Amino acid sequence: MTDLTYSEEFQYSHKNPYHQRLEAFSQFVFRDSEAEQYRGKWNSDIFKKEAPLILEIGTGYGHFLRDYCRQNPEVNFVGLDYRFKRSFQLAKSLARDEIENYRYLRARGERIEFIFGESELDQLYYFFPDPWPKNPHKKKRLFQEGFIERAHRVLKPGARFYIKTDHRDYGAQMIRLAEESKLFDVELVSLDLHREHPDFWLNSYPTKFEKIFIAKNEPIIGLVLVNKK
Ligand SMILES: C[S@@+](CC[C@H](N)C(=O)[O-])C[C@H]1O[C@@H](n2cnc3c(N)ncnc32)[C@H](O)[C@@H]1O
Hints:
This protein is an alpha/beta fold. The chain is built from ten helices and eight strands.
């Protein structure tokens, strides 16, 4: 079955009460189709500053967004998540922060091609995505061939796509698809990132989910892809 979120005709549903409540944060939160008006114009019209444009899909509780933006004030960072209530809670806490070099999107990762233009992004991050472990649900996983093609289009030539997961089956799927893909080179693949690559820079930005798995001594799978264009 085709996932309609990938099609141009797709309409976001706005019935969730938190959709409305997110309007209170419109100085830094964009919702759904609002975000899509800025396709190809994020640096010029939103950030009003030419800088590396970075996207994180599945921002969750915002740990990476906060830490990365604080330590890299020169970048333009966009965090994206599709959960309404979580987005509202994150927006409430971000509004108290002083960091300014980010925007937040309540949108679906499936829509990246409608949100960003050709070669608009300098980096892409995708950490601890929902694994959809049951067989009938696996088609809901975001990282599929169609998504790889879209990521390839919105990323600049040579841009990196960073992935971390604890989930072996989804991790194996992403590694297999990445290795088979002609659109990306696999620069790094590890089934135990923290032990095999203790000095890897990304280890110093643990997300909320990553901290949970580290505390349980569970290995983190890491994947770094380089866009071939
Ligand atoms: C398991 S949480 C991980 C959150 C965070 N990255 C971390 O590592 O702590 C996965 C997040 O991805 C979001 N998510 C899942 N599928 C998504 C999609 N298709 N588009 C946007 N966000 C999605 C969920 O709402 C959730 O907040």
